[in-house]
Design brief:
180 residues; mainly alpha; 77% helix; rod-shaped; disordered C terminus
Amino acid sequence: MIALLILAAIAVWLVFSYNRLVRLRNQVRTAWADIDVQLTRRHDLVPQLVAAVRGYASHEQTVLQAVTDLRSQALSLQSPTRLGEVETALEQALSRVLALKEAYPDLKASENFSQLQRDLVKVEETLQYARRFYNGAVRDYNVGVQRVPDVVLARAFGFSSAEFYQARDEERSAVQVQLQ
């Protein structure tokens, strides 16, 4: 009878632990999908912003080309760490594009440019929240798959640690965006 109770307790623990790990893994996947949605929105805004600026500041081609190239790189990446590096560089390049409005009064007065700028700022704020949520979900999941005795179950069923979304140290400087 005692052996049967012990087996039942182990079975309950296995089911509970497995379901918890699945829930945590799905939370990480959902959080990553939320980041992906915001990055897609940002990547949709970039060509529009570049086109709006190009008409006013055609000789700023190197800045506009850098933004376009970084967007293309970001669209092809899957690794949260590498994507974090490219997205940080894209944020910095976008801040240089947005700073061009000071040198071009006609651009500053453009309603299209102003709306794109406001949309981009909204996306950046949402991205900041989504990244924090994702990293919190990764932290919880990684604790779940690394904690004893759950680590045994995690390894048996192929649960592995997730990657945090992060930028390199030299890319952590604040992006300056000014709105009128």
